[in-house]
Amino acid sequence: MSDNLKTIRELADEFKVSKQAVRKRLTDEFRANYVETVDKNGVATLVVTVTGYMLLKQHFSSGNDSEKVGGNVGGNTGNVDATSDSKQTTDNSYVFKILEQQLAVKDKQIENKDSQISQMQNLLDQQQRLALQDKKLLEEYKSEIKKLKSLNIPKQGSEKDVSIPKENSAENRVKEPQNKKWWHFGRRM
What we know:
Blueprint: E1 6-7, H1 8-15, H2 19-25, H3 28-34, E2 35-40, E3 43-48, H4 50-71, H5 78-152, H6 158-163, H7 170-175
Antiparallel strand pairs: 1-3, 2-3
């Protein structure tokens, strides 16, 4: 694997702990943020990113350093402090690099969101313009329909009287059949 991505076995060997101890630290949240799956020769392998590596290193080194300090009570502790200071400066530089990378990613995400917002604003403006055009067209159509209806209405006079038959005329009464109900068949009057 590369230096940036380490497997659980590599981490366990480096921190001098068991693989189970490393797996115990890989919570669901940690896996979601700092663990990737890489296919190597058809086998899916879990690898930890640089940021996750730094967090694990901090966790395991703080636990191991306290044990070393406890074991070196009678020995020379000055050398341990000198090496921890140099490790701390390199750790800080790693942290700064990681933070700079994260800031760069966040800046790209913000730029992406800004472009999405401007596109959404343009689409909203376009939708509003189309809605106004539709409203104007509807008003024009309504006025045209009213004009056409006013042209088609016949004058109240001779045409109306001719086209509408009289309801009380004898022809209409003869044409209407009488309703026969089925229950009247058995009755005699």
